[in-house]
Amino acid sequence: MTGLPLVSVPRNRPRLWLALLSAGLAAACVASLLFGAGSTGPGASLRGLLAWIAGLDAGPDDARARFVVESLRAPRTLIGVLVGAALGAAGALLQAVTRNPLAEPGLLGVSAGSALAVAIAIALGASAATLRVPVAQLGALAGCVAVLAASRVRGVGDDPIRLVLAGAVLSGLLGSLTSMILLFDERTADEIRFWVVGSLAGRRPADIMALLPGLGVALAIVVVIARPLAALALGERVATGLGHRPRTVRLLVIVAVALLVGSATAIAGPIAFVGLVAPFAARLLAGPDIRRTLWLSLPIGALLTVGADIASRLLVRPSELPLGVLTALVGAPVLVAVVRLRRLPGL
Amino acid sequence: MNHLAYDPPADTPSPLRAHGLTLAHGRVPVIRDLDLALPRGRVTAIVGPNGCGKSTLLAGLARLHAPEAGRVTLDDRDIRDFGARELARALALLPQSVTAPEGLTAAELIRFGRQPHQGWLRQWSAEDARVVKAALAAADLEALSDRPLDAMSGGQRQRAWIAMAIAQQTSLLLLDEPTTALDLGHAIEVFELVRDLAAAGKTIVMVLHDLGNACRYADYLVAMRSGEIVAAGAPSEVVTRALVHELYGVDCTLLTDPGTGAPMLTNVRRARAPKSASADT
Amino acid sequence: MWRIAARGHDGRWSILVDKRATAANLLLTGLLLAASLASLCLGSASIGATAALRGLFGHGDAMTVFVIRELRLTRLAAGLLSGAAFALAGCLMQTLARNRLATPGIIGIDNGATAFAVASVVGTGFGLAPPAMALAGAATATAITFGLAGGVGTRGYRFIVAGIGVGAAFGAGTQLMLARAPIDNANTAYPWTVGSLNAADPLAVELLAVGLPAALVGAGLLARALAAVRFSDAVARGLGIRVGRCRLHALALAVLLSALAVAVAGPVGLIALMGPEIARHLSSRRGVPLFGAALAGALIMVVADLVGRRVLAPIEIPAGLITSVVGAPFLLWILLRPGHRIGA
């Protein structure tokens, strides 16, 4: 938007919120670098961080702390930011395209499809490291197509809750199939068991590089379709009447969601509820227009994921909680809140 | 059936025409070989019994429904040759029973109407601001511009949707059952807005299920039955007892509205005996 | 068709029986007996039907008697009882919420029971036996769901979504405890996450053997009132039914049954959905097929366990996975049939 007068001032100052949230995210990232489950405390971490950033030379203790901060916590934090932002954006996109405030990649089976695809690939002998990202993206794509097909069945599209129920069932089914593969194949089970619950621990910088192409393409798509998608929120015929092509928009959204969720799932496992909570909070801050909620969903999702990751390290020290557990604990009450706050049809 | 010429009066060359239009749902034809020309700058109402194909026809006119055969022309150019945004600058459509995301305000909704005029590098201009303001004024919603649609009355909400279509700055406006689910007072709000828009030069087509309202607010009436046009012309000329019976299978008494000269239906009752065996096809 | 099945000779009492429901229940009973016999006969060492039946009554060689009575009969009993309990609980819950999707598994009761039971298994300091913990968990989950949803609502949907949220939170809690537990304890607890008869707790089976018949009697007493509650509260009140009390009793029964069944078999929640559905299709739509649902549920559980044991032997597929893979597409079909009403 330019400085020209709008008919009304954009509500609730989304740009202010964007700035505040970005500042919060930066603070969370610093905290994520400083706190951990291990023995390297905040003070030592801070010295290590300074040693890393400023290139200060220091004693052996600081060198150890620098290693922890630089090689363990920094990649982990970066992954948290990427995964959270990807899932937040994917949730906002999926909710806009299905016109359903409850649509969430984790709840609707998109993440479960991604996980199943990876489990199948590993069971068939693929090495986890090389193929995981594209395979996860393909699985997510299949999940997206299923969700969209379901949402376009007559009667289901107007009934947000039926879609969520169908998604929960689909998630359960795909999860069962994944469990079956794990039963048959011990090697797969060992490779995948800790990945299935969702975690950011123990990822390498090379894993991050593998995500960047997919996320870059998704970002480009999002920039192109934000405006038509906002019109699609008014209904397909209205969007057509405004000169958009709903089919093309929907197709692009599916591809973007699949890329985002597939990338996030490939590196962190299926993490539910971030895609529900982030757009929900963004709508509370900035109103219903996808052009604002989408950008706000990015820092909110990232903040949520990094925060949950910090909590997962601190709550049960010296061990760690799976990240998916924490997001579910935060997300479940939000799910209920969405249902209670909104006048959904059929309630 | 005898072929009738549905050409509008010569002083109003038609912007939107259907030529031999056939529309189908799946493989079932709904509209067969239909010719129609809509008068410029007038309000046209398409009426007929449920399932006669009037909403399908409107969708076909707006390129929402691809024809099996025939074509629709806008200013003598096939609408299939228009780009998506180009068509949206020439023809605005308000579908039936539209819903907006919760919390969207009237002004935000109306701003969507500017999308066909906006581009990648020109997302908001002084012209846009002026047009949105004018649309708010036209729909008499200036005081309500920041109110969420879900906090409005049905009539206000429908006027906001029409204002969005106004903001598209098209010469043609197609409305599908714009007063469904509105009570009498709110329906009148909408109809009077439609009349104002026609007076300002817009060509308006609306699908209505109420013949009385169609007679009262339309200049030109298109009566359909089973996918075919059975009569077209000024309401005072085409609405007869025989037409009402043919459309709805009811008997009635026709009066003339002393205020407007439009036909008024009264004493409507079920027909005693079916007029012909084919009345139920 | 209703007919009078029995009548006092002075005409002061009479019992109405639905012919089709009776036929359906007889059919289900026959299938259940056949499946039970198959379950006794088939295993790592197959035993002939005659030998199995003789072994059941203590005749034949000692090894056969041991395998039949100690191993397979216990497992069969666990399957019969838990399957019937799941399905009966599902039928009660569907009826009181007036929604065919409102089964204990979907609205989080199973997950609540599982989380509490796992807490006692992995030794987090709660000392009670798994059945008691499961009951506490089921009651807690129900109370939270009701509290969040503010009642059942007209079509039960808000209740269901609140339940999905609560279930997800409890499911996460279960994962959390399993992830933190030492690995051998976690293996003990693994059947809890998908549902299996492999490690059925004898105490839990005995409790269910007492609880299920009692619950069946209770459900039978509620059946007529529940049939009226299906229409609407107003109609039921007009027929002189105390709707609130009827709902409360049905809910208590459903929670009790779910908890006891989870303590035996883990969360095999989809049986609660499939059992009543099969019974409804077989019997007339007029009544609430409580008994038929219990029979169908027991049948599903026994067959699923049998299939899971045999199909890829020696690898055993947990019964919960079998019902999930078969039941989920069925549930999707219910949900996504165009223009279909889901109200029970």
TrEMBL record, chain A:
<keyword id="KW-1133">Transmembrane helix</keyword>
<dbReference type="GO" id="GO:0033214">
    <property type="term" value="P:siderophore-iron import into cell"/>
</dbReference>
<feature type="transmembrane region" description="Helical">
    <location>
        <begin position="135"/>
        <end position="151"/>
    </location>
</feature>
<keyword id="KW-0812">Transmembrane</keyword>
<feature type="transmembrane region" description="Helical">
    <location>
        <begin position="323"/>
        <end position="341"/>
    </location>
</feature>
<protein>
    <submittedName>
        <fullName>ABC transporter permease</fullName>
    </submittedName>
</protein>
<comment type="similarity">
    <text>Belongs to the binding-protein-dependent transport system permease family. FecCD subfamily.</text>
</comment>
<keyword id="KW-1003">Cell membrane</keyword>
<feature type="transmembrane region" description="Helical">
    <location>
        <begin position="294"/>
        <end position="316"/>
    </location>
</feature>
<feature type="transmembrane region" description="Helical">
    <location>
        <begin position="163"/>
        <end position="184"/>
    </location>
</feature>
<dbReference type="GO" id="GO:0022857">
    <property type="term" value="F:transmembrane transporter activity"/>
</dbReference>
<dbReference type="InterPro" id="IPR037294">
    <property type="entry name" value="ABC_BtuC-like"/>
</dbReference>
<keyword id="KW-0472">Membrane</keyword>
<dbReference type="GO" id="GO:0005886">
    <property type="term" value="C:plasma membrane"/>
</dbReference>
<feature type="transmembrane region" description="Helical">
    <location>
        <begin position="106"/>
        <end position="129"/>
    </location>
</feature>
TrEMBL record, chain B:
<feature type="domain" description="ABC transporter">
    <location>
        <begin position="16"/>
        <end position="251"/>
    </location>
</feature>
<dbReference type="GO" id="GO:0005886">
    <property type="term" value="C:plasma membrane"/>
</dbReference>
<keyword id="KW-0067">ATP-binding</keyword>
<keyword id="KW-1003">Cell membrane</keyword>
<keyword id="KW-0410">Iron transport</keyword>
<keyword id="KW-0813">Transport</keyword>
<protein>
    <submittedName>
        <fullName>Iron-enterobactin transporter ATP-binding protein</fullName>
    </submittedName>
</protein>
<keyword id="KW-0547">Nucleotide-binding</keyword>
<dbReference type="Pfam" id="PF00005">
    <property type="entry name" value="ABC_tran"/>
</dbReference>
<dbReference type="InterPro" id="IPR027417">
    <property type="entry name" value="P-loop_NTPase"/>
</dbReference>
<keyword id="KW-0472">Membrane</keyword>
<dbReference type="InterPro" id="IPR017871">
    <property type="entry name" value="ABC_transporter-like_CS"/>
</dbReference>
<dbReference type="InterPro" id="IPR051535">
    <property type="entry name" value="Siderophore_ABC-ATPase"/>
</dbReference>
<dbReference type="InterPro" id="IPR003439">
    <property type="entry name" value="ABC_transporter-like_ATP-bd"/>
</dbReference>
<keyword id="KW-0406">Ion transport</keyword>
TrEMBL record, chain C:
<feature type="transmembrane region" description="Helical">
    <location>
        <begin position="319"/>
        <end position="336"/>
    </location>
</feature>
<dbReference type="GO" id="GO:0005886">
    <property type="term" value="C:plasma membrane"/>
</dbReference>
<dbReference type="GO" id="GO:0022857">
    <property type="term" value="F:transmembrane transporter activity"/>
</dbReference>
<feature type="transmembrane region" description="Helical">
    <location>
        <begin position="203"/>
        <end position="227"/>
    </location>
</feature>
<keyword id="KW-1003">Cell membrane</keyword>
<protein>
    <submittedName>
        <fullName>ABC transporter permease</fullName>
    </submittedName>
</protein>
<comment type="similarity">
    <text>Belongs to the binding-protein-dependent transport system permease family. FecCD subfamily.</text>
</comment>
<dbReference type="Pfam" id="PF01032">
    <property type="entry name" value="FecCD"/>
</dbReference>
<feature type="transmembrane region" description="Helical">
    <location>
        <begin position="248"/>
        <end position="275"/>
    </location>
</feature>
<dbReference type="GO" id="GO:0033214">
    <property type="term" value="P:siderophore-iron import into cell"/>
</dbReference>
<keyword id="KW-0812">Transmembrane</keyword>
<feature type="transmembrane region" description="Helical">
    <location>
        <begin position="287"/>
        <end position="307"/>
    </location>
</feature>
<dbReference type="InterPro" id="IPR037294">
    <property type="entry name" value="ABC_BtuC-like"/>
</dbReference>
<dbReference type="InterPro" id="IPR000522">
    <property type="entry name" value="ABC_transptr_permease_BtuC"/>
</dbReference>
<feature type="transmembrane region" description="Helical">
    <location>
        <begin position="76"/>
        <end position="93"/>
    </location>
</feature>
